[in-house]
Amino acid sequence: MHDGSVQVIPGIFVALMLRKDVSTGFRTSYFQSGFGGYMLGLALTIVIMNIFETAQPALLYIVPAVLGCVFLHASMRGEAKEVRNGIARVHTHVCVWELAADCLQARLGCCVASCFISVLY
Q1: What is the pLDDT of residue 32?
Q2: Which terminus, N or C, of the chain has the lesser number of Cβ atoms within 10 Å?
Q3: CA distances for 108 relative to 1, 97, 105, 114, angstroms
Q4: What is the pLDDT of residue 56?
Q5: Using CB atoms within 10 A of its CB, is residue 26 exposed (0-12), middle (13-18) or buried (19+)?
């Protein structure tokens, strides 16, 4: 059975890139590389879908684009091994709920986001 929930995996990886950037005080821009790769993969999916006029599995293009852009960026900075080995081990003082609240406020507006976050607590 195929559902769209598996497409959150590249999004989680991009979020981990943001966490990496936050932990370094935004001295790196891995989030931008990951997000750019996601957009590139999505655009490629749409182009291929229109050329062949049939549905395409988006992850077939999104995952390699995200990983490729991030690891190319890391290789250019000489940090490929660090990124490969330690994305999940990044220690940061940023609260996950604060990041979620910031994202929701940007999308839904301050009032709705604060109501939603208060329900989650």
Answers
A1: 93
A2: N
A3: 32, 16, 5, 10
A4: 82
A5: exposed
Q: According to the model, what pLDDT value does residue 84 have?
A: 78
Closest CA to 36 of 75, 68, 12: 68
pLDDT at position 99 is: 53
pLDDT value at 29 more than 60: yes
pLDDT at 22 over 90: no
* C-alpha–C-alpha distance, residues 14 and 59, integer Å: 14
| 10/67 Cα distance (integer angstroms) | 9
Residue 81 has pLDDT above 50, yes or no: yes
Distances (CA, A) of 6 to 10, 46, 59, 87, 116: 9, 18, 9, 20, 24
Structure tokens at 60: 């077939």
Q: How many residues does the structure list for the chain? A: 121
Please count the other Cβ atoms lying within 10 Å of the Cβ belonging to residue 62. 23
